[in-house]
Design brief:
The structure holds two protein chains of two kinds. By secondary structure, chain A is an alpha/beta fold. Chain A is built from twelve helices and 15 strands. In chain B, helix 2 crosses helix 8. The chains are: A alpha/beta, B alpha/beta.
Chain lengths: ~350, ~270
Amino acid sequence: MSDRALLEGSEAIARAAVAAGCRFFTGYPMTPFTKLLEYMAALLPEVDGVCMNAESELEAVGMAWGAATTGHLAATGSTGQGLSLMQESLSEITNARLPLVVFNMARGQGDYFQATRGGGHGDYRHIVLAPMDVPEAVELTRLAFELASQWRTPVMVLGDYYLAHTYQAVSVPSIEGAAPEVPDWALNGSSGGSGSAKIISPLGGGVEGEEGFDLGAHYAACAAHIQEMSAGVDPLVDIGFCDDAELVVAAYGSVGKFVRYACLRLRDAGHRVGYVRPITLWPFPSKAVHDAVAGAANVAVYEQNMGQMVEDVRLATLGAVPVEFIGGPSWDHSGFGIGPDINVPDISERILEAMT
Amino acid sequence: MSNDQIFISTDTPPAEPAALVDDFTPTLITQANHHLCPGCGEPIAIRAAMEAIEELELARSTITVFGIGCYTAFAHNLDVEVVQALHGRAPSVATGIKRMLPDGFVMTVQGDGDMVNEGLQEVLHAAARGENITCLLLNNGVFGETGGQMTTTTTLGQRTKTSIEGRDPHQHGHPILLSDLAATMDGAAYVARCAVNNAGNVARTKRYITKAYESQMAGAGFSLVEILTMCPTGWFVDTLEGPDYLQDTLAPVHNIGELKTPLVQQ
């Protein structure tokens, strides 16, 4: 199925996940994440994979944790609320150095901090990818599994109701391909009885009471790994019209696509406005944002929350350019994060106001 | 043999260093020198669990998922593969492993705080699902690692740091009898409760654990062995009183015996 097809976002992501080699998926139904779980339940048996309708988000993330220790590519997900329940495990999975992909079909943009700050306990970060639409989500889903395997860490794909439910013509690779080989560190029981059986633990390895078992040393190694990822993962960003822009607007995710379109139309009308759309929310593309706004008089950040990514934009620009928040929470009666303010005339008005 | 060889004089330094005559450590326990308190029942239970793995020749296909408690010290001391899970979460982690490695032997080791307090829904869901894993519950009726607080399996009248005058049902509620609960699940194939407070019970523990393992290897579904263990430190009794305290306090409530076997259905 490499030809273009009209697919619901959730199906396109599910197909991209299986094509990337995902063989275990589990989740607990919750709008707008539910459809992804349904598609995975239909697709995974076709490739001898396993999909489980977990009894809770706590058990979903636990099952994914267990599957990940066997070296097969595993994924889970939920909405921001369900992710809150999973955080204790996600934090520990990070310290256990296990690859895992987490699909967060969030309700609106209120969970930026939860996604990018490491929503659980401890001193850690996750790689976070925020696609603006279905084709980009297909590409980033592939990348998410790649990064998770490469860095042995959880990677989050941060979407929303629009991404999960919009139908879009998209080309998705075939799910027929072989899954990647199981890596050496994975468990299958066979190292038992050898005198040095493997252990996968968020507390590190080594034999307790002997040299090599040192929790402090393990946490220090985990911290060093986070720093290595911070420097080593290529930050992705979408930048437009910034060379001569008076005002640069920053936005992410599907909201970012609307902001980009608003900027395009304002350009057509002769306004010197540019945009930056961070795609990796962690590591945040700080240098690219800093450089993109260097010539501007002002930066405006549009997100549908009380102002979260605006802090990362301010850190990226380090006071070189004034950064104004022009977004705000936007809810309809459903509570699913279908922001009625995702509306190009309204966004354009806010941008023009910020230019004056 | 002359008396000289039996009674060693302590007036002078020994002529040669002490030598280990025999090592009774099971081969799957790599480091027997644990840091648990004297009189603790958990090492006896772990020993039985490891001996049974060896005897059934499961060492090269075993993955053991550890919860969080005093027994977690053994996670690093075994020669079987280990996944360290969070407090309460071992059954779901074991589920993920077993689903990806259906031919492997997958078991969990959890305490009563871990399995019955924090993770009650996990173990019951795994049992109801008929998940083909073996869960071991080390039940001493108290939070040992944090120093003797009440758990959901603490018996009525039992004194802990958070039930100082004894567990009062009006204030602290009633104990949960986990094995009895699990045995009601259709997905549970083998459920048994035993103890390690005397030689007979230790032998029974080994027997039940072996049956649970065999049940999993036969693909029968969920198996659970609850093992009553001594915790003199958490019970605030003398080390030597531990076995009797277990017999008088825990065993009359958490009854020892097989609750569900493929032959003896409830």
